[in-house]
Structures are given as structure tokens and as C-alpha cells.
Amino acid sequence: MKLETIDYQAADSAAKFVQSLRDTGFGVLANHPIDKALVEKIYIEWQAFFNSEGKHDFLFKPETQDGFFPAEVSETAKGHTVKDIKEYYHVYPWGRIPQSLQENILAYYKAANELAEELLQWIEEHSPADVAVNYSIAYPR
After folding, report:
1. 17 exposed, middle or buried (CB, 10 Å; 0-12, 13-18, 19+)?
2. At residue 75, does pLDDT exceed 80?
3. What are the extents of the domains in the chain?
């Protein structure tokens, strides 16, 4: 199996992306609109957050699932018996986010969702008819 990198800016990127999904189950994009510098800033900012004691001020709420999840409440992956010991933070635009981390993470959230919407549209537009007939709902426009 050969996994090609698709140039997001190429004229045929949508068709090639969907074909890659069909052939390999994966789609790898280069030159996409997600700002690498923004992602790097987010890693630095959130690493500082996870290294601080302030993370405990944002413990997750079971009813909303937003916030900081300490290692003690880590999950066990489906089909496994050993816990996946890690700390993580669920970010939702409507959820609790430390003020100092909001700007960049919400900018990323917006950009990633816009890209996801575009990729879903590509899939709908370039799927073969025998595949598309099985889609339960159309992509909303």
C-alpha cells in the first residue's frame, strides 16, 4: 500500500483525497490551512498548563465532560484491560477554558472544524455513486 501526500492547494486535491481514503483508509494533506505556528504555540501553552497546579482548578465536570482529566480518572481503551494513564483536557467552545489559553485553542478549533467541513464536502462530492447511495444524510450546506 502506498500512502500519497495530497497537496491541499492542487486543483485535483479533493478527488485525490477521496481516492486515497478509498484506497488506503487514510488521507494525508500537505499545504493545508491549519497554521503550524499556531499548533506549536498551543503545544507550548498547554504544556505549561499541564505542568502547573492550576490545572486542578479546571477539573472536568461529569455532566458536561469539559475540563481537565487527571491521570487518576484515565480511561481504558475498548477491548483492553490496562488503563491508558494520561492527563488530558476536553475543549469545547462553550466549556471552561483557562483565560490565558482561550484565544489560540479556539482559533485552532474554528480552523480545524472549517477544514473538517470542507473535507466532508469533498467526500460527498467525489464519492462513487455506489458508495454515496449508502450515506444516511447529506452534508449540510
Report:
1. buried
2. no
3. 35-120
